[in-house]
Amino acid sequence: MQALSPNPDEFNRDSSDSPIIEWLLHDDQVMRECFRHAAAILKTVTEASITAVLLLDAEHQHYRAEVGLSVHPIPRRQSLSHYAVQGDALFVVEDARQDPRFTHCLLVRAAPFVRFYAAIPLRAPGGELVGALCAMDGAPRALPQAHHAVFEHLRAIVENDLRLRCATATDPVTRLFNRRFMMESVRQKWREAAPDDWLAAVMVDIDYFKQFNDTYGHPAGDVCLQRVAAVLQTIADENQAIAGRMGGEEFGLLLSGLPLHSVPPILEQLRSGVMALGIAHRHSQAGVVTVSVGAAITKGSTSSQAAFAAADLALYRAKHAGRNAVVIH
């Protein structure tokens, strides 16, 4: 059995700086099907009463493709998976009830009253933790050595599918959604919105980026894109938004489920956050890299295409107003 810390708060939380968790938690049918098959194979081989793929965001454990269990997301620090993902090896607990360190775990002290638990971490192509493949049972038991290899092989299959899927979904330079997946995610969010829900379509452009590339070189340009994207992703993470690279030096953002009055301060936080990076740019009036931001605040009854077209117009106005500005349509 793997040695554990007596206190789960000693573990550092793994907080992903990529959009992969957000994407998987929302709706990716290809990976959902992969998860379903992996959980089903694991159940057939181990004969465990419950098998599942778990996804982990910063605060919660979410079940995907669970077989034999229906449960809402639970706090990550009250889950067995919180312990299981501290390393990369297969993690096995033969009887959770016999170890006082697991008494706080929800599925141990309440239905389905888990005693046996085995899980192996799952990672995205960049190495960030996304979750675990697990098997659980209400009766204590050992895991046969032959089943250890099954966990390893299933992890390889899931991670390979995830690697192939990510290659088609994310921009390789910034690790944000690429344009196609950004707009697919926007359309999905728009379909989920009620006609009277407010949404904010946002377009962001790095000011004088061509001159930056010409002056400092393309490797420096890539670093600039990455650092601006990191600011954008932080804004997205803080506000449960969707962020992506639309192409070149242009980015997109969708804000939803927020009070209307909060949108202007968020966009100003984005503009000032990029400026605060202090990336030297001799062709910028500010002397550092800045962005222009255009936004359109509209209701769900408007099409996403129309909203982003209006945001693009607002971006045009921001650039022609002197750049390093926010304009809301």
Automatic annotation (TrEMBL):
Protein name stated in the entry: diguanylate cyclase
What is the native source organism of this protein? Paraburkholderia eburnea
Q: Which PROSITE patterns match?
A: GGDEF
Give me the Gene Ontology terms describing cellular component: plasma membrane
Enzyme Commission number(s)? 2.7.7.65
The record's GO molecular-function terms, alphabetically, read: diguanylate cyclase activity
Q: Which GO terms of type biological process are on file?
A: cell adhesion involved in single-species biofilm formation; negative regulation of bacterial-type flagellum-dependent cell motility
Q: Which SMART domains match?
A: GGDEF
Query: In this record, what's one Pfam family?
Result: GGDEF
Concerning CDD domains, the annotation shows: GGDEF
Task: Give the domain of life.
Answer: Bacteria
The main enzyme category here is: transferase
Q: What is this enzyme's catalytic activity, as reactions?
A: 2 GTP = 3',3'-c-di-GMP + 2 diphosphate
Q: Which NCBIfam families does this UniProt record tie to the protein?
A: GGDEF
